[in-house]
Amino acid sequence: MPELPEVETFVRQLKPALVGKTILSADLRWNRTLAAPAPQKFREQIVGQKIKDVSRRAKYLVFQLSSFQLLIHLRMSGDLLIKNSTIGLEKHDRLVLKLSGNKSLIFNDTRKFGRVWLTANQEDVLGKLGPEPFS
Prior knowledge:
The protein is an alpha+beta fold and 135 residues long. It has helices spanning 4-18, 39-46, 123-126; strands spanning 23-28, 34-36, 51-57, 60-65, 69-73, 78-84, 93-99, 103-109, 115-119. A hairpin with a 3-residue loop joins strand 7 and strand 8 (103-109). It is globular.
């Protein structure tokens, strides 16, 4: 399981590559990856959203979109990759977000424990977490 420093490393690597990109399509390849909302609603709501910021709250990656927040918890075996959209998909790719600039954000999760939320209020998911450690 990625620990807090590894999650922070993800944020620092993803932020410069993703901020300003627009989500063009969403390919949910394993429905249980998505905790909320339902798959069809997820696709409808996420397409057209612009990524404004990438941050972290505890071990959750928080993507601030135009109108929503996309939350990802990697759990034990999750990984996030940025690839050119023309590169083929792998066996364990669970969610593929095609982005402007011919890029894709891919959530790869071998053991299928990771989860994704799309919410208008991140406190619905993160509200019961304890305080952040001091830096």
